[in-house]
Write a structure and sequence with these properties.
Blueprint lengths: L1 H16 L6 H10 L7 H9 L6 H18 L1 E3 L5 E3 H7 L1
Antiparallel strand pairs: 1-2
Helix pairs in contact: 1-4
Length: 93
């Protein structure tokens, strides 16, 4: 996700330098829509319900936090107290 966001922000900055600035709010919407799948569906819904819109930097931070929260949700504690990261577990299988 971080690579995707960085790529999108770089694209925004390139467009801005070419004087084809779409506006930060439009680009924030574009960035949010580029987060595919159901993982970020609730996140986008919450953003759309807010009266205050985020800056590009705020959106980047919020998306990174959301991804970290989702990764934490995928960890399972085993009875012995060991933690297993389900994402890495599925890769190993």
């Amino acid at each position: 996700m971080e690579e995707h966001i960085t790529h999108m922000v770089n694209t925004y900055n390139q467009l801005k330098s070419l004087e084809t600035d779409l506006g930060e709010r439009v680009f924030v919407e574009f960035l949010l829509k580029s987060c595919k799948g159901d993982d970020f569906k609730q996140f986008r819904r919450t953003y759309n319900q807010l009266k205050e819109k985020w800056s590009l930097l705020d959106t980047k931070v919020m998306l990174m936090q959301e991804e970290a929260r989702q990764r934490e949700d995928l960890k399972v504690k085993l009875p012995q107290g060991k933690i297993v990261d389900l994402v890495n577990l599925f890769v190993l299988l």
